[in-house]
Amino acid sequence: MDRRPPRSNQNQPRPGPRGPSAASSRPGQDRPSHPSHPSGPSSRPGPNSPPRGQYQPRPEHPSHQSHPDRPPQQPKSAPARVDIDFAELLPLDLPAVPMPPEVAALLAEQHIELEPGDSEKLGRYLAMLLLANQSINLTAVTDPAEGWRRHLADALMLIPLVASFEPTEFIDAEADPDAAMAALRRTGDPAAPAAIPAMRVVDVGTGGGLPGIPLAIALPDVRFTLIEATGKKVQFLRLVRKRLGLMNVDVVQARAEAAGQDRKNHREIYDIAIARAVGSLAVLVELAGPLVKPGGVMLAVKGEKAQQEVTEAEEAIAKIGLSFDQIVPTATSRVVVLPKVARTPKTYPRRDGEPSRVPIGITREREAPEPRPAPDRSQRPDNRPDSRSRPPRGGGPRRS
After folding, report:
1. Which domains does the chain have, with CATH numbers?
2. Cα distance between residue 44 and residue 49, in whole Å
3. Among the ranges 8-12, 46-50, 92-96, 177-181, which has the highest mean pLDDT value?
4. Which of 24, 45, 114, 394 would you call most buried, defined as having the most Cβ atoms within 10 angstroms of its Cβ?
């Protein structure tokens, strides 16, 4: 039998705490607040207080405020873009750099003859190149005589290869008489004026105009297209074209990958593609090869390791539709001759930067770290007993 008394105060409120603090819990009276937790009438929202839950910015600490004697800090901004006015930088009366005697002897030895006035144009171009190089990175050569040997003479060595190529496009003498007359001066055969050959050459990654500008000066009847991605270099090249009157030169600002996929303006329309020192041969083949029409040729200007690069680029040469013909040694470099024997697949060239990052047929494996030697566990220090002599855990043998 349950003898517990019935709960009569089940619905009544519990009495408050005893003592002086009990008065604060009565209705109508304010509870004393702690300094760190304010409450009471002073903490109650007033008529001008923001609604509860709205964010209120805290006042700035005095140590974070700007000092009255210090100037206010300006927000950081991106560096200002500096535009170069090459027309103002390069004066019209800039003197030409004369051709050194050793360069003249080298050209005569290679049976390369320049027309009257070509040497002066080449010297003017070199003078503009060296002066503009002080404001924009165009070349590592700063000596004028060295510039003639390493840049101009090296470019002129390609004249026999370009002149020996038979173009597949012809000029209509009635539709374009100026181009027809220029082609007649090159061929010297006016017997067939209605079928005059015309040649188109593209210089991929021309930079400051090498070797495209010197070749355009020496071969005025050949149409040259200079492809460069950097805007400042393109501005310089267009000024050079205007100052020297090179009407057979077109300057195009584009990446080689984008130009190779431009089927309307650039893809497989050129007779010759020239690439000089802008990357390994496997990379150059993918960048310049798609620009060459079937039956054309690609000329890659390389150094002493030309044969080694050809071996490494065999897969790239085959995939792009080229074939290896020969390596022609010149007085200044080695030229790899790659005829175009088939059309380039639509997947090449790949996206911007992909040919340089992952060249065709070249796997760049990471060097594996050297294995760490295994520790010799047979030799242990004297103060460390062998694990076989340690007593079992639990203080002794188990009891069954």
Report:
1. 158-357 (3.40.50.150)
2. 9
3. 92-96
4. 114
